[in-house]
Amino acid sequence: TTEQHKDKFASTCCYCGVGCGVTVSKEKNGTVTVEGDAAYPVNKGMLCSKGLNLQYTVNDKSDRLFYPQMRYSKSMPMQRVSWDEALQRTAAVFKTFIQKYGPESVAFYVSGQCLTEEYYVVNKLIKGFIGSNNIDTNSRLCMSSAVAGYKMALGEDSVPVSYDDIELADCFYVTGANPAWCHPILWRRVEAHKAANPGVKIIVVDPRVTDSAAIADLHLQLNPGTDVILNHAIGRVLIENGDIDLDFIQNHAEGFEAYKEVVFERTVAEAAELCGVREEDIRLAATYIGGAKGFISMWTMGLNQSAVGVDKNLSLLNLNLITGQIGKPGAGPFSLTGQPNAMGGREVGGLSNLLAAHRNLNNPLHREEVQKFWGGTTISEKPGLTATEMFEALNNGSLKAIWVICTNPLTSLPNVRLAEEGMKKAKFVVVQDISDKPETIRYADVVLPAAAWAEKEGTMTNSERRISHLAKVVDAPGEALPDAEIICRFAQKMGFRGFDFKNASEIYQEHAQLTAGTNIDITGLNYEVLQQKRSVQWPYTTGETGEGTARLFTDKTFYTPSTKAVIHPVPVAFRSEMPDNDFPLILTTGRIRDQWHTMSKTGKVNKLKKHISQAYLEIHPTDADLLKIGEGDVVVVASRRGDVRVKAKLSANIKRGVVFLPMHWGKILGNDLNRANNVTNDALDPISKEPDFKFCAVRVEKY
Ligand code: SF4
Question: Is 219 helix (H, G, I), strand (E, B) or coil?
Answer without folding.
Answer: strand
